[in-house]
Write a structure and sequence with these properties.
Helix 5 packs parallel to helix 6. The chain starts with 8 loop residues before the first helix and ends with a helix. It has two domains: about 280 residues, Amidase signature (AS) domain (Amidase signature (AS) enzymes, Alpha-Beta Complex); about 80 residues, no CATH class. The protein is globular and about 65 Å long. The chain has an eleven-stranded mixed β-sheet, with helices on both faces. The model has no long low-confidence stretch (mean pLDDT about 95). By secondary structure, it is of the alpha/beta class.
Length: about 475
């Protein structure tokens, strides 16, 4: 069973294979819950009710005929609305792409379809995945299922709210600077940012090409591992895709953890919320109780991670979003006044305030005389940070630290203070900068019932280890 008492995705899929329930019935139930979640949480940008039921019927037929026998076949799920889905809108929660319907599927969505999962719709997010609260969407803010006055985190807030709110047991998110792990933490679910290149970026509407990754979000660790096994894989269409065989992440969950060396980043606990600090310390004690060697480690260059990340993010956003100009696709305004007016009107009306801010600052960073001062210096610090992490992972198999400095904050609390919003990413963005993997695991709650979480970090292709550790910690929490 999941943490919320509901059957897990893997349990439901087993019932489908045993003939106890059908995918069609589960999808009908999911769509009913989607309607309620959408009304209360605004978690979806598009719901595919008719199409999902037709697909569920086809999946049931394939399962009965023995053509489909995968661990998650027939399970309803949701897809973040920056992942391309052929024939369905992919808006990235931006007016500039409000009418865009991709002619192709993202690699990750292709894998989901091949595994027999049933997507019920697309989830809301910060516009172009630029945010930590899911408040910048052109479809308006997403709300936290635990308390609708609070944010669900961002940018994959819609996916997190859909899973935590009980609409679906699984969702795909994307993480370029914490956008899976932070909303997973704020909504009390499991979210994993894979190693850079483990999951193809083909068909992901990119924000930061050098850090973007699609990843799984689920109610529990085993479901998260199962979905990662579905979407991981080599893809020649992504130049950064890691070649070679992928693990079956479900099969490694029951492996031994005693003797693993885990470094706790205790200096990252300075100045964080007391509940967050206590959660990390308690998780460290639990790992020690499981036979892990838990020792304090330091990564001094990571203190500069937020500055480095946002310098690079601004620069890459400025360059990457130049293609959205109203010429080839998307919103087009100001046709009557010539090319310049059309470009100004299309981009001016199409982009929201946060996206405009990042484009303008990024253009400045990349301008003559400043590229060396800011962009190239940030690249240099990034490489130093990468070397520090690689050095630590020569002696440790995993790291333990917070996901966010605070529990969820209220809607509107930080939206007008960009610096405070960016600082919410201080413990998640280093993992993206160096291309390694990280997982957010629920760990208790605040006095007013808001979720707390801890983060497990692994080296490149260290997903199996952090999933195994997370499964053991999940069992510790369940038995308390």
């Amino acid at each position: 069973m999941s943490g919320g008492g509901r059957p897990t995705a893997l349990e439901l899929a087993a019932e489908i294979r045993a003939g106890k329930v059908t995918s069609y019935e589960l999808t009908e139930e999911a769509l009913a819950r989607v309607e309620e979640v959408q009304r209360n949480l605004n978690a979806f940008t598009d719901v595919w009710a008719e199409e999902a039921l037709l697909r569920a019927r086809d999946v049931d037929s394939a399962i009965r005929a023995g053509r489909l026998n995968t661990p998650l076949a027939g399970i309803p799920m949701a897809i973040k609305d920056n992942i391309c889905t052929r024939g369905f809108p992919t808006t990235v929660a931006s007016k500039i792409l409000c009418n865009y319907i991709p002619p192709y599927n993202a690699f990750a969505y292709e894998k989901v379809l091949s595994a027999g999962l049933v997507a019920v719709g697309k989830t809301n997010l910060d516009e172009f995945a630029m945010g930590s609260s899911s408040e910048t969407s052109c479809f308006s803010a997403v709300r936290n299922p635990h308390d609708t006055e609070y944010v669900p985190g961002g940018s994959s807030g819609g996916s997190a709210a859909a899973v935590a709110g009980g609409a679906v047991p699984l969702a795909l998110g994307s993480d370029c600077g914490g956008s899976i792990r932070q909303p997973a933490a704020f909504c009390g679910i499991v979210g994993l940012k894979p190693s850079y290149g483990l999951v193809s970026r083909y068909g992901l509407v990119s924000f930061i090409p050098s850090t973007d990754q699609i990843g799984p979000m689920a109610t529990g660790v085993a479901d998260c591992a199962a979905l990662l096994s579905v979407i991981a894989g080599y893809d020649p269409r992504d130049a950064n895709s890691i070649p070679g065989h992928r693990e079956d992440y479900l099969s490694v969950l029951d492996g031994e953890v005693a003797g693993l060396k885990v470094g706790i980043l205790r200096d990252w606990l300075l100045g964080v919320d007391k509940g967050v600090r206590d959660a990390v310390e308690a998780a460290g004690q639990a790992l020690a109780g499981l036979g892990c060697e838990v020792e304090e480690v330091k990564l001094p260059t990571s203190a500069h991670a937020v500055a480095v990340f946002y310098l690079l993010a601004y620069a890459e956003a400025s360059s990457n979003l130049a293609r959205f100009d109203g010429v080839n696709f998307g919103l087009r305004e100001g046709d009557g006044g010539g090319l310049r007016e059309m470009l100004e009107e299309s981009r001016g009306q199409g982009f929201g305030a946060e996206v405009k801010r990042r484009i303008m600052v990024g253009t400045f960073i990349l301008s003559h005389g400043y590229k060396e001062r800011y962009y190239k210096k940030a690249l240099s610090v990034r490489e130093r940070m990468r070397s520090e992490f690689e050095g630590v992972f020569e002696n440790y198999q995993a790291l333990l630290c917070p996901v966010s400095p605070t529990p969820p904050f209220k809607i509107g609390e930080k939206i007008d203070e960009p610096l405070q919003m960016y600082l919410a990413d201080k413990f998640v963005c280093p993992i993206n900068l160096v291309g390694i993997c990280g997982l957010s695991l629920p760990w208790g709650e605040t006095e007013n019932g808001l979720p707390l979480a801890v983060q497990l970090i692994g080296p490149v292709q260290g997903e199996g280890t952090i999933l195994r550790l997370a499964k053991r910690l999940e069992e510790v929490r369940a038995n308390e």
